[in-house]
Amino acid sequence: MAPKDPLLGTLKVCVLNLQSDGEMVTDTNPHLASCCELLELVLRKGLQQPVISLVHRDYWQCFEQLTHQDPCGRLSALSLAVEQTRVCRKLLSAQGRGRYLLRLALSRKALPQFITHLLHTPRVLEWYSPTTSILRNEEFVEPFMSLLLVLSHMEFKLNMENCSFLDESWLLPVCETYEVVPCREVGMALRYLSGRVFVLNLKPGSQAYVDKFICPGDIIDEINGTSLRNSKNGQARVVLSRLRGCPLSISVLRWRAQDGTVYRPLIKLLRALRVENPTLQLGPAPSQQTATKDQTSSQSQCLKEGRIVYIVQFLGKTNIGMLGDKEVLQQAIPQVLQKNLPSKEVLLDMKETHLTCTDRSSKLVRRHMSCLCYCLTKVSSTLSLWFPRSCLSITIQRFHVSGDTGNQTTPYLHSVWQTPQKPLTRLASAVWRSEPAPSRSVRR
């Protein structure tokens, strides 16, 4: 009777559970963390430590060493994955880099290929014990590779940007993106603790306070692609100062996990924050608006010539002059609404280079050329499209707008009016109204 390894038996059960959950495996899958942890245990089993070295050897060093043993460049896929892992600033330890590499290999269906390279590189394989490791046991390697082949036929859609906690845990926090229009200040009081940037409270009346997206206890992970992992005191303020007047994309890690409980790796840190700030009130659980969005999007959208366009009510227009800050909307919107003109139902089509506004008979009502940007902001009960500097601003009453750019859905596009020689000196502000729809939220 062939010997069995308990790790492989448990891994097989976990792989079957992943298969039974559906075709697509995402970060929310309850079996993903267990599967990754078992793969990690297999790669660590029998891994021998060097006799004379102060560095603890982990499986990350094995894959990293493989690229040095490839002078002919045969391992291009592995080399690219290792390099992407090495330059990720959110990873501080060999454990975090190894876990990131495993997730990357699953996403790219390349894990069997990586392990095969390891098995065919004697100089690295000899780091494993021939008596205790799975990788140097011929009877165990075959079933292990079979399980990896099964995983390679599954679709993994993993958020590789959500990796700041891989150094500590396979359990990942809820990661969402907060899109902020250009403003003088976001209005967040921050606390730097253990290399994390926590939100302590929100300034009343500020942009963050009005949007109610970020909550006390949440973590600012990155701002416009700049990672704040292991950042020093004041670094977030420096980044925000450098980006003042620009649209912001803030990656937020929630203090609550997917199941609504406190995210376990944060328990000790949140306790420390409570000790320092006894009045700290953790924010509510992030709202789950995906289902609502699906139900209401069809009420305010329709198909026109194969494109999704928005059904809105055109309420009027007013001049806003040369100013482009979002504060202009505070005056422009009431000016349009006070005219109390009859509304007109139109179809708003937002393309990459321009906006078109037509009626039901396809008669062109307005057309706006775009070349830079417009952003969403919240003004009272409205969501407003904001155009920087001598631009057109459009307000959509209780209306959710999102654009699909590449693999990421973002709730803002880019547009500004200008002539070949100079910007237009006077432009108009149009106001639109639509059916109620969910507030902005982009989950990563």
Automatic annotation (TrEMBL):
Domain PDZ: 185-240
Domain RUN residues, every copy: 26-163
Lineage, broadest ranks: Eukaryota, Metazoa, Chordata, Craniata, Vertebrata
SUPFAM superfamilies per record: PDZ domain-like, PH domain-like, RUN domain-like
Name of the molecule in the record: RUN domain-containing protein
PANTHER family in UniProt: FYVE AND COILED-COIL DOMAIN-CONTAINING PROTEIN 1, PDZ DOMAIN-CONTAINING PROTEIN
